[in-house]
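User: Hello, can you help with two protein structures?

Assistant: Certainly.
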Amino acid sequence: MIGGKQGVTVTYRQSWAEFGVEEVAYELRWVTEPGWLTVEVKVPTICMMATEIGGRCELRAKADQPVEGEYFGSGALTFAAPGELVAIHAAEMREARLCCFSLHAADANYLTSREIAALQLLQSRFMFRNQRIRTCAALLDGSRTRGDANAAYNHSLSKALFAAVLEMGSRAYKQSKTTALSGAVWNAISRYMRDHLQESIAVETLAEIALMAPERFGGAFRDVTGMSVRQWQMDHRVRSAQRLLADNPKESLAEVAILCGFADQSHFSRAFLRVVGLTPTAWLHSRT
């Protein structure tokens, strides 16, 4: 299923298949930045990043081309039609878990012939948000990872996942004003924020890059990220700190805080806790 790759290694692979849903989960590690790998899709497939340490991934049609996506925040999904290549690209990253849910409609005996035909007609959709699909996929992944033997539970989740994907396909979605922050424009904004990680970034500066009025930019940015500019920058700083700590767990937290643009270690620890759910020290201990 893995095609080409550059700067990324697969450190672990798991797979499960039942009730028409085959899941393949990959543990990935970035050894160069940027780095990418491609996944070859033979049947309709939902792809998601279950975890991301040290950065954020974009799922693209081509590794070297920014994606015309709808949503770039946490929980983004990609639906790939049969024959599609999905490139998992990250400008900055250390470790990630990629989960791909292949929908084998012919093996799902609870689907009607009309539903099977509708699934095959769905077009690829990169980087979008759908809480119902995400929840079904995450619960199914969690159940399988834990080794739960509750067949009825997994059967219900598989049915719910198919239903959510079919519902997505039945609803025509319109390109909104937020698509101005996509493709090459979003790529330029992301690059600017990475390059100015330690500085205070003005909304007006980013709006100028996007060729958008400042009073419109803040709302458009929140729509495609789920965060304000300030929150997104803080999230970037925490992920940058994750990379430093993953590379050198014995690095001084005070030093990491300064390198990543935090006022002091206390400020860094509070921000890290908000983003990761653990303090830096607890996070390091969880990795040993």
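That covers the first. Now for the second protein you mentioned:
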Amino acid sequence: MSGIEILGTGSYVPEFVADNNKFAEFLDTSDEWITPRTGIKQRHILTDKPGYYMGIEAAKKALDDAGVKPEEVDLVLVSTCTPDFFYPSTACLIQKKIGAVNAAAFDVNSACTGFITATDIAQKYLESGHYKTILVVACEKLSGQLDYTDRSMCILFGDASGAVVYRKSDKPFYSMLGADGDEFEALYCKINYDPNCPFYGTKEGEEPWDAMFDTESKRKYLQSDGHAVYKFAVNAMANAVKNVAAQGGYDINDLDIVIPHQANLRIIKKATEILGIPEEKVYTNIARMGNVSSACIPVCLDEMRKQGMVKPGQKICFVGFGAGLTYGALIFET
């Protein structure tokens, strides 16, 4: 199996910063309550632009870093669970704005696992030879899906975008993706369609299909069962890393860098503790960024490359989980 070469990375983080003290101004909370439970000190929020704007800016930076012209891109693949439009896809909006006139474009939504999913898809296309240059963008504006009266949820998330330009390499690549749809109620955000069709209704004697969404918050905003998510995430992330390491014949100690989904610092610490991965091999930025869904991993990757932490010959692992519930991991060599 052929691998992936990272030609360039880029990220966009909104200027506006909401630290924990800002939330204490309108919620019964405090920095002392938020930080120990989440590891989050602040998050960035896009206050005056559509979400896809972040994807455009991250994509431009990634192409510039890679030295690749927009017209050289064969595919724009976007991970998002917070699109500004049902259609067209966010990928098409980004393709237009960056001038990738020769590229196909489509979106992927596996929530916070989305960047891993998109990278896995990109690798398959590159290996087949169908495409030579692929731009993967994760673009997430979670601030628009939150109930700001719910102190347990709205403090967790922020907005950001990360992008990577990939080409085929002859280095190893191993991956796995999984899902457990039975657990969907543990983490979801329902589309709040306006039910104005005159033919809608429920047959007499039947319970409405959407009876479970019995509050305005459940109909409109992100919902999570924190205990269920924690239990799932810790086990799913640890098992996913074990799976891909076994595929490659690696010992866990062979990994040089692990970039996990930045959902909660306690989840990250517990999963890596189970795996026996030392803290110095695990990159986190959750204290500064909060949870930016599928953009977590590419933003971390871009930060690491800018700091000179990504070097040739390393074995890098991405691992995450998300709504669905979904999970996945991959290992590649630089």
